[in-house]
Amino acid sequence: MSAAAALFAILGALLVGVISPGPSFVLVSRIAVTRSRLHGLAAALGMGIGGTIFAGLALLGLAALLSQVEWLYFALKIGGGLYLTWLGIRIWRGAREPLTPAGSDAPQDASLLHAFSFALLTQLSNPKAAIIYGSVFAAMLPASPPTWLVSALPPLVFAIETAWYAIVALAFSASHPRALYLRGKLWIDRLAGGVMTALGLRLLLDAIGPRPP
């Protein structure tokens, strides 16, 4: 496989992974519908940077390190699982609270930073993403990839991650999805909180579960 063909194969595999629903999708869509389009785009930027960090670390060999150093992978999964579980419980408990207009309880810059950092932490809370990036790169990169290919992957990963979540933010910040959310806020928030909590608990159970022989 040529370097160009490998690049397109990697980007295709990563795109399929990015658009699969998960905690990142839940968080970005909720930020967009509860705050504003700009907040959703700030969250999309956080997702893009988080994905780029994982991709860069995978290229540097973190995925191989995590697969070999069991206690480090265990610690990262425990930390990520606790964070996602906390976030899910927080969303569930806030389901009955009325929707606060964007910017009414904090300066606009601070709330944008909050959306960005929340998204970045959510993206980085699942160390399995580093393994996924590492697996894709290991399977599809040539044995001796050219420098241009390795250099091109992190910015392209950033473009894919950010573009997809920007689409999610734009879609969910439109007036119709927002109106639907306002009508069903209690149950939508409880569903989002339940999904986030379940994902966190799954990561925790995966960390403490029996190891394969």
Please tell me about this protein's structure:
The protein is built from ten helices and no strands. Residues 101-108 have low confidence and may be disordered. The protein is globular. Helix 2 runs antiparallel to helix 3, helix 2 packs antiparallel against helix 6 (108-124) and helix 3 packs across helix 7 (128-140). The longest helix has 26 residues, at 147-172. By secondary structure, it is mainly α.
Summarize the structure.
By secondary structure, this protein is mainly alpha-helical. Helices cover 81% and strands 0% of the residues.
Largest pleated sheet: none
From the alpha-carbon coordinates, what is the Rg to the nearest angstrom? 18 Å
Number of strands: 0
How many helices? Answer: 10
Keywords:
mainly alpha, 213 residues
Helices and strands in order:
Blueprint: H1 3-19, H2 23-34, H3 37-59, H4 62-68, H5 70-93, H6 108-124, H7 128-140, H8 147-172, H9 175-183, H10 185-208
Helix pairs in contact: 1-7, 1-8, 2-3, 2-6, 2-8, 2-10, 3-6, 3-7, 3-8, 4-7, 5-10
